[in-house]
Amino acid sequence: MISARPLQPLHWSRSLGNCCQWTASRPASTFAALSSRPQAKLQVYQSISSDPFVNLSLENFLYKHSPTDSKILFLYINRPCVVIGRNQNPWLETNLRLLRSSTGIENKGEGGNTVNDGSALFVRRRSGGGSVFHDEGNLNFCVICPKPIFHRDKHAELVVRALKNVGALKTRVNERHDIVLGQDAQQEPSPLVVKAGPSDQDAESPPLEKPVRAVKISGSAYKLSRFRALHHGTCLIDSPNLRQIRLFLKSPARPYIKARGVESVRSPVGNISSALDESVRPFLMQQIIGEIMKEFALLYNLDRNALRKAQRAHANDPELSSGDDWVTGILTDEDARNEPEVCKGIQELHSLEWKYNQCPQFTFSTHPTEEDPRPRPEISPALSPSTKAFFRVKSGLIIESHISTSPDPDTAQYEAKCVHKILHNKPLHEILDWASVLSSASAFASQESAHPGAFASTSPDNELSSLAKWLESKLGH
Q1: Which of 135, 256, 419, 446 has its CA 20 to 30 A from that of 245?
Q2: How many angstroms separate the CA atoms of 117 and 105, rounded?
């Protein structure tokens, strides 16, 4: 179980975060003007912001406003964060409780936005695909191109060529369009823990060890429109948090949730640095960035001078350069602040409505149901066997629920009715204190006196408290 393993502090170099403090000297909206210029057929950018909300919004601006026949490469590195797909369920895909308690608490700030005072973030991106963990050892690449020339392996193969250029010869694109790193048969199997077999259905089962001969170092997501295609992906170069990743992407609520939408495919992961000599690590990230730029230039015939300027761009001099048909350079937080549409995108990604209410309908149930007949783990030895918790969530709101503890069917139905009066149409992410919810329902039942046994003889306060703690342990508060 996750609780049995103490979480190590996340590694995050503050020097990476300090890159955000540079102030560009260029006029406001230079980035917007250059990137949307009809002649700008080829564009290469590297962001020095470590803010995932900024980088994803800059990326979206390029996708929407660059010329429809342009090809764009955008590279960035985010601070530690969990990023889920547009149509994913955060209660199913992440351990929200661990994310908040171990790495900072997201609080509701002005305008309903979230304020994070820790070292990791929770982000929902605009593209589809699965959940990933970003940090300073993880390079994010994005290629935007005309839809007619797009296919899912094209730019993953570009990244593989770049990785092979630095010596990672055993990288390849697999049938799922992921980039994997093979291991020699004579090498020790990867020490990574991999879930296998029926225990995948039970987040509380002990993980099974099995040898791994290839590890995933890059996953991809896509966004397609009538004229444009966006492919962005991660690339684990030298993550210092490698063994933490699975903890953040393993939800304790998984055995109880039946969800629509996209579920992540879990795979063992590894660093590119593990396949290379120790001496190259200090410069590996920038070397790979340069090689990806070079492969992009070769693929799309980018001017040599433009490539040279892109590769030599530096955080100390965050400038943009342009030629007849190209734009290259550094993007900063100021570029985001200077463009109203990028700012609007950042605010949207920060909003609690986007983060939580975007997910498709799902149910949470402690017991098998007709629509979700899977067997469930025992919920808690502190609770009576008759305890049941069920709710249906649509657009983030609880539209149906049944929470009861009584073994008597009539009393249980009444208990559920009392709880539902409090939960009906309430956003699930706003329930920070399940003990208060259950206590209010118990008080309401006591006032009505319709069922004297409700939340009483079979459910003393300590049992309601245990149920509240159990719900909070699964749902992230």
Answers
A1: 256
A2: 6
182, with CB counted inside 10 A (0-12, 13-18, 19+), is: middle
pTM (2 d.p.)? 0.85
Give me the mean pLDDT over the 204-229 stretch: 76
Helix ranges (H only) for 271-339 are 281-300, 304-312, 333-338
Tokens 């602040």: give the residue: 337
**pLDDT given at position 99:** 83
Residue type, 292: I
- For each of the domains in the chain, give its residue range(s) and CATH number, in order of start: 30-104+118-185+212-358 (3.30.930.10), 362-475 (no CATH)
Percent of the chain predicted with pLDDT > 70: 81
The set of residues, in sequence order, having a beta carbon less than 8 Å from that of 17 and lying 6+ positions away, is 50, 79
290-308 core/surface letters (b: 16 or more CB in 10 A; e: else): bbbbbbbbebbebeeebbe
Q: How many helices (H) and strands (E) does the chain have?
A: 15, 19
pLDDT one-digit tens code per residue, 402-453: 999 999 999 999 999 999 999 999 999 999 999 999 999 988 888 877 777 7
CA angle 311, 335, 347 (to 5 degrees): 125
pLDDT of 357-404, one tens digit each?
999 999 999 999 999 999 999 888 888 899 999 999 999 999 999 999
**Coil, strand or helix: which one is 110?**
helix
Collapse the DSSP code of 331 into the 3-class scheme (helix H, G, I; strand E, B; otherwise coil) and give the result: strand
Q: Which two tokens stand for residue 41?
A: 């057929």
Structure tokens at 319: 């400038």
